[in-house]
């Protein structure tokens, strides 16, 4: 009996020791996504192609198997929703976003439950605007996500099912949305797929606005190097008419993550990504071509303090052949304070509510900041057990 207890204890300790570093939206916001925002968006809540991060479970749920028990609570100035009309114009709605959830390992499988992660509803975003919900009551939908992961014969696999709905008292409109994401991981190959099962905005007396969303991608880890690529398509059909709003994005990238010395990680990446702006069949604003180059690093300044920084530079950033109207270079700083089993992550920036993608980026990339009103753009508290 004692030998069995010792053996189980050793296995348990080894599982904890092998558990990858937990992370958050705050960390992704510093390191960036590696795709210029073409597939994973600018909100930093869909994970990152170019570095390992807990948030990667939201595009490939197979990564759920790499984590043990923890709970995380986050607060940020994410810009929330924008409405895309049938003519391609947008109107913004600000949102100070609270989100969080937990992951629990049950031996043979791992379960996760997350609350109010807004980007669960919208898989794809334009890099500089948002092709998001034309749901009439979008601000009340509050997504709920259930994640399941399991390893079978060396193959890690997982799924993420999200659902959000709202039925106002007057029942004038009913919004409901359901998305399924599945992924696998085997010998360095990490494929994933996503599909919107339901996406309806029902209106009494008229046709419903339909939402279509599907896509997928692949990562391959070869030592320090990781090539990756993906494709995603989103369509909104307002009120059943022919003025569909279409957005599709695709691209390829290559990243390298290396351990420079004990406690110090350095990474860099480059990619080629194409994303069309919201385009109505009768016309549109053309394609956006991006060649993002990122450099990022983090290191343990003290046993309880990790510092990180990242910069993303766009070697090419054109829309319809014309150069971007502004310099979208991102340079960000963040940190993690570690006390026992608790981690506090944050990214430095303006804490004001963001109303668009551009204002959120400006908040985190502000030229000046101070503790009084420019300190926490995103922060999370994570407890491991």
Describe the fold and architecture.
The protein is mainly beta. It has one domain (22-384): Beta Barrel (Porin), CATH 2.40.160. The chain is 8% helix and 50% strand. It is built from three helices and 20 strands. The strands form two sheets. A 16-stranded antiparallel beta barrel has the order 1-4-5-6-7-8-9-10-11-12-13-15-16-18-19-20. Strands 2-3 form a two-stranded antiparallel sheet. The longest helix is centred in the first third of the chain and has 17 residues, at 2-18. The protein is globular, with a radius of gyration of 21 Å. The protein starts with a helix and ends with a strand. Residues 1-20, 80-95, 126-133, 279-284, 351-359 and 367-372 have low confidence and may be disordered.
Structure, briefly:
The protein is built from 3 helices and 20 strands.
Strand and helix map with partners:
Elements: H1 2-18, H2 25-31, E1 70-76, E2 81-84, E3 90-93, E4 97-105, E5 109-115, E6 144-152, E7 155-166, E8 173-185, E9 189-203, E10 209-220, E11 225-237, E12 245-261, E13 264-276, E14 279-280, E15 287-302, E16 305-319, E17 322-323, E18 330-339, E19 342-347, H3 357-364, E20 378-384
Antiparallel strand pairs: 1-4, 1-20, 2-3, 4-5, 5-6, 6-7, 7-8, 8-9, 9-10, 10-11, 11-12, 12-13, 12-14, 13-15, 15-16, 16-17, 16-18, 18-19, 19-20
Number of strands: 20
The secondary-structure class comes to mainly beta
Alpha-carbon distance between the two ends: 25 Å
Uncertain regions spanning at least 5 consecutive residues = 1-20, 80-95, 126-133, 279-284, 351-359, 367-372
CATH topology: Porin
